[in-house]
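Quick question, first post here. What does this chain look like in 3D?
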Amino acid sequence: MAMASTPPDLDSLRDRPSSPEIRVLRPRRAAPADAVRPTRAEVNLAALRHNLRVLQRHAGEARVWPVLKADAYGHGAPAVARTLERAGADGFCVALLEEAIELREAGITSPILVMSGAYGGGHDEVVQRGLVPVVYDRGQLEELARAVRQLGAAAPHAVHLKIDTGMARLGVPLADLAPFARSLHEFPELRVDGLMTHLACADAATPEETAHQLRLFDEATATLGRHGVRARVRHAANSAALLRGESSLDAVRPGIAIFGVSPVAEGEREPLSSELRQAIRVRTEIVSIRELEAGKPVGYGALHRTSRPSRIATVPIGYADGLSRKLTNRGHMLVRGVRAPIVGAVSMDMTMLDVTDVPGAALRDEVIVTGAQDGPHGRDHIGAHELAAHADTIPWEILTSISRRVPRFYREP
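> Answer (accepted):
Ran it through. Tokens below.
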């Protein structure tokens, strides 16, 4: 979609938030054909299919709806959805209407659940594109019903009702459930096809909080039933709950596990599953090597000084690519099959490694940020959990932070 050559005057638009002249453009992800620098993210499609099979086995009879929000956790939603749709996924979940539209425009025909609903508008798009919105307030019901009527769409349109059982984020509070259930009967254009809740502590050390939420979910289901609202499907489980064998119900919503990163229960060291395969591998190459004497500074702020004669390699990846600046002087990358420590400040576009102890390290050598590497000196793997530990964050943020300027290459083994 073209953008006007002259930007509109902001003052003239201030009171026209729904002006038809305003368009929202999605940032374009760097395409493989446009790649010049050697930094890229490689997505193993076979690993995605393998992870889906593992999760289907854990889910038993429950439907498996992979969660592809945040550009499929940084993996590229259209390509991931096409792969999983062909592999037998029962449907998909996204957070935003924009994400659902992207999947429909990529040719995805499976059911798509928009978990955050259509707040801010877009209800016509929901109906026209056959999406399943999550609802939790009366305003959503009114707008969706209006869209069904005005578009002459087949009624009733399926929705899923979200119940807040302890997340305190979105969902109908338990105290408001009975009047909300009564109001549903005012909208024959809509049908509550599913009930859902969001588990807040599925990876906690003990299951008590999850069990409490599920009890409240059962009570909410009973309350709705007494008011004539009976859904075909109920769902609550995320990756952690699914892998722990909790709350499969009629459907499950695995997110990070689809991409091969298993949650770790609070206080534990081992992941909940050892079968999953990390699907993404971020790689780059050495573009410069410096020979430094002992005591020489490295990078912005001289945050590292060599303690010995050192070989310092520069790689073209930085915090603008999603490599956290908290990795300054922390963590490693893989070079020739062994670990090379990150030294100095992670800058916007570049990071330095100490390759003094990597025999033969040279220009154009492959460098692995996350993923596995086979090299002349061995084989090693740096997973999302390890990166997260060094950056004081969680694997979810590591994956979703890989920026759109890093092209995604899709691989079969």
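The longest helix spans residues 208-226.
Residues 1-24 have pLDDT under 50 and may be disordered.
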